[in-house]
Amino acid sequence: MNNSVVGLDIAKNIFHMYSIGIDNQIIKKKLKRSDLLAFFANYPTSLIGIEACGGAHHWARELIKLGHEVVLLNARYVKSFVVGNKNDFNDAQAIFDAVIRPNKRVVRSRRWSNRIFNLSTRFGKVWWINGQLWLIKSEAC
After folding, report:
1. Which of 3, 34, 55, 117 has the fewest beta carbons closer than 10 A?
2. For residue 131, what is the DSSP state?
3. Domain boundaries, the chain
4. What are 100-122's pLDDT values in tens digits?
């Protein structure tokens, strides 16, 4: 294995990274929310696996801006790779193991334009006024 694949378990404040180095040495790192983007800005371009959840789409967009390739994985698919008790480093290792498999269940990353379109079809009218998003329920929806 090489250093170009990373499993990243995200949470509110602390993120856990798991990878395998060039010399087959396991790399485990605990990163704070404020340090995550600075760390990956200096990290070599790699394939990063993240378990899909609400915040994962935001982090996927940010990591793609830094030049990394990001794969969002279905949580049910990742769960089968967890070895031992459930903790954050074991989750990051399970994400890493799921990313390197050839047939993985990938979730599409959502963009802001898709989210606004989904809101407009659900609520009727979406307006952007003074930097705020306004949703108006329509009778036709």
Report:
1. 34
2. T
3. 5-110, 112-141
4. 988 877 776 666 555 555 555 55
**Looking at the chain, how many residues does it have?**
141
Q: Residues 26-35: pLDDT tens digits?
A: 999 999 999 9
At 51, give phi and psi (nearest 5°): -70, 130
CATH class for the domain made up of 5-110? alpha beta
CB atoms within 10 A of CB 81: 18
| In the chain, beta strands by DSSP E | 5-9, 14-20, 26-32, 47-51, 69-73, 106-107, 124-129, 132-137
DSSP state of 23: T
- Token representation of residue 75: 């949580």
